[in-house]
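Per-residue structure
===
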Amino acid sequence: MTGARMTLVGRDAALGALDTALAECAEGGARIVLAEGATGCGKSALADAAAERARAAGALVLTAV
């Protein structure tokens, strides 16, 4: 997401799982994360939030469209 900030509601468990995966990667592990759901349910917003958190933790984040 570029520009405005958004707050995710009801995504604490998903963000926690993503934070755990990031921490494991920082320790030398590798992880693949899959987000699935109906159109408009917030998958892209969740991915954007995860990327922002990873950047804040010092990770190199690459994205493509």
Remarks:
- The radius of gyration is 12 Å.
- The chain has one domain: 1-65.
- Residues 1-65 form one domain.
